[in-house]
Amino acid sequence: EYKSLLSSVELAKENLKLQEQAFLQGLSTNAQVIDARNTLSSIIVEQKSVAYKYIVSLANLMALSDHIDLFYEFVY
């Protein structure tokens, strides 16, 4: 899921760039630029949330299996 969001982040960045350029040329509105920024922000937040859930799940798994010392090998 995290990796699939990487392409979404790139697409949202490109969309924001295009919306900003269109706004500077008078072809789009400020609201469209703000929507593009909000979309990018929400995708980044979702990506960070997925990463956080993965880390917490991994830590729980390592703790339950009595291998918490191996946690950093998986994370880094």
Protein traits:
efflux transmembrane transporter activity, 0% strand, single chain, TolC family protein, rod-shaped
Describe the structure.
By secondary structure, the protein is an all-alpha fold. It has three helices and no strands. The chain has one domain (2-75). It has helices spanning 2-24, 30-64, 71-75. Helix 1 (2-24) packs antiparallel against helix 2. It comes from Helicobacter pylori (Campylobacter pylori). One of its GO terms (molecular function) is efflux transmembrane transporter activity. This is TolC family protein.
**Shape annotation:** rod-shaped
Task: Supply the number of structural domains.
Answer: 1
Alpha-carbon Rg, integer: 19 Å
The count of DSSP E runs of length 2 or more, i.e. the number of strands, is 0
**In percent, how helical is the residue content?**
over 70%
Number of helices: 3
| Rounded average pLDDT | 94
Q: Tell me about the biggest sheet? A: none
Termini gap: 19 Å
Question: Which structural class do the helices and strands define?
Answer: mainly alpha
Strand content: under 5%
SSE order, one letter for each helix or strand: HHH
Q: Uncertain runs with pLDDT below 50, 5 residues or more?
A: none
GO molecular function, one term: efflux transmembrane transporter activity
Protein name: TolC family protein
Organism: Helicobacter pylori (Campylobacter pylori)
